[in-house]
Amino acid sequence: IRKAWEERGLTGEAVRYEYFSIENAHTYIDQLSSRVYASPNIEDRIKVRTLLGQIYHNALHDRFEEARDALLMSHLSDSLHTMDSTNQVLYNRVLVQIGLAAFRLGLLSECVNILGELCCSPKIKVLLGQGLTRGVVDKEERRRFYPLHMHISLEVLDSVFLISALLVDTPTLLSETDRRNQSLSLKKLRAFIDSTERNYFISSPEQSRDYIYAAYKELVKGRWRTVYATLLQINLWKTISNPEKVKKVLLSRVKESACRCFIINYGIALDTVDFDYLTRTLEFTPEELRSLISRIALFENQNVSLTEEPAGISIQKKEGSTLQRLAFTLSEKATQLVHHNEKLLDSKVGSYGFSEKELQETQTRGGKPKPKSGGPRNLAQQTRKKYANPGRGKTTR
């Protein structure tokens, strides 16, 4: 770096200004990184660390697409298990910064996909090099930790992930009946809501998670103004650069999510919704609402369509009511319980002396199968013989 400064004729205050100037920092870091990549005397570990630092800088300044593409093209995830611990921690911190950059730009789906695995892990402090969750830390391990002023706030990270999951996965949470093959973000959101609702007394919001839960209760009803006002009370916005720009993007995402929840909740009772009513309620322009309804119909497996005369949104009923969905879930669980009980009975007493193949054959023929030698009938005969001749068994007093 010093050699690069001397070649450009920079010394003293000029170096300090050039290094900390945001306008020139991007090109300057690219030049220094290309020097490291081109040098044959530098270890691969240092080159990997240089690449991660360059991606981290791009994500920090909201160059999301550039940082994401560089990380994907490097294929570092394939060789992550062979890296040393310092580079693995730096890789995790780079993922966090890319996810935060996606949130600041309003790309909530990308934010949820990137941060999902890290935020759902109970060892997130260890993964980010910010300490251990429990136990005594020795000196060697303490050296691997980042200093306190370089820590990423876990509360900010949790709030960003939950807000993104709230706006992305709440419509899926309302419309989904099968809980298999769920995404990590949907599981995290469902667990967060269930754990909050299990409390006997839910007070007025005080912490970030309380505000997010209050926003969820209003979002289900389609009240986007209350949702937006509730999310603005979180302390998250004091730590984000350009908060007004982020809030403006967040407002449009809240409206879109409220529209999806409205269609899912009230689509069971309504056949059509007036187009002008939705534009007035959600404060959308007609073009924005048409674009949103088209995306819902094409990509989100919802049976909605636009009607011309009268202008409105047609909703075709695909699923039953909430009571019907709960009854369907109860029947599935009862079927699984019966199946597990049959398996347990078979492991204890056998299949009544018959194999599954014989049982299937008898069901097709309509006859009675022939029992095997080790079936319950032979077992009953052996028991009768044993107690008929007590002298053959153990002597009792």
SSE blueprint and pairings:
Layout: H1 2-7, H2 13-20, H3 22-38, H4 44-60, H5 64-74, H6 85-104, H7 108-119, H8 124-127, H9 139-144, H10 154-175, H11 184-197, H12 208-220, H13 224-231, H14 243-266, E1 272-274, H15 275-282, H16 286-299, E2 304-307, E3 312-315, H17 322-349, H18 356-365, H19 376-388
Antiparallel strand pairs: 1-3, 2-3
Helix pairs in contact: 3-4, 4-5, 4-6, 6-7, 7-10, 10-11, 10-12, 10-14, 12-13, 13-14
Overview of the molecule:
The chain starts with a helix and ends in a 9-residue tail after the last helix. It is 64% helix and 3% strand. A three-stranded antiparallel beta sheet has the order 1-3-2. It is an all-alpha fold and 397 residues long.
Element order, helices and strands?
HHHHHHHHHHHHHHEHHEEHHH
In total, how many beta strands?
A: 3
State the end-to-end distance: 96 Å
Quick check: average pLDDT? 77
Helical element count?
19
Q: Decide which structural class fits the backbone.
A: mainly alpha
What is the C-alpha radius of gyration, as a whole number of Å? 31 Å
Biggest sheet strand order reads 1-3-2
Percent of residues in beta strands:
under 5%
Share of helix, binned = 55-70%
Low-confidence stretches: 15-20, 371-380, 392-397
**Major sheet:** 3 strands, antiparallel
Q: What is the general shape?
A: globular
